[in-house]
């Protein structure tokens, strides 16, 4: 079977790290660092509300990485993920193909997509996952 026909569920990250709309930007930033991810699906009452990326946080608080900037640290401690997240993010189904996911990423200029089965978040697929698939398929040739 061709790489482009492989299903998202075969390459997605299952049970991704998530946050709540009331998660502070500082907490979201820490979660991303701890779990080595660049995006967090935002969940409320078991439903996907949105997504926040490391770029979103750094755009909102560009000096967050500076230890000396008290104002940025205060802002990061008080601003919530729900204030800056992308609402109703573009998603894919687990049975969609990798080609479907890649085309959606290109069309919407995003580097990762939540994977939903109905209304339930079941994973996340990223550009890195797709690159991993491509590299593996090349090594099989």
What is the first-to-last residue Cα distance?
Answer: 13 Å
Helix-strand string: EHEEHHHEHEEH
Output the CATH class name: Alpha Beta
Strand content: 15-25%
Radius of gyration, Cα only, in angstroms? 16 Å
Largest sheet: 3 strands, antiparallel
Count of beta strands: 6
Low-confidence parts: none
Percentage of residues assigned to helices: 25-40%
CATH H level, superfamily name: CBS-domain
> Helix- and strand-based class?
alpha+beta
Total domains:
1
What topology, given as strand order, has the largest sheet?
1-6-5
* Mean residue pLDDT: 90
Architecture, according to CATH?
A: Roll
Tell me the CATH topology: CBS-domain
> Shape, please?
globular
Number of helices: 6
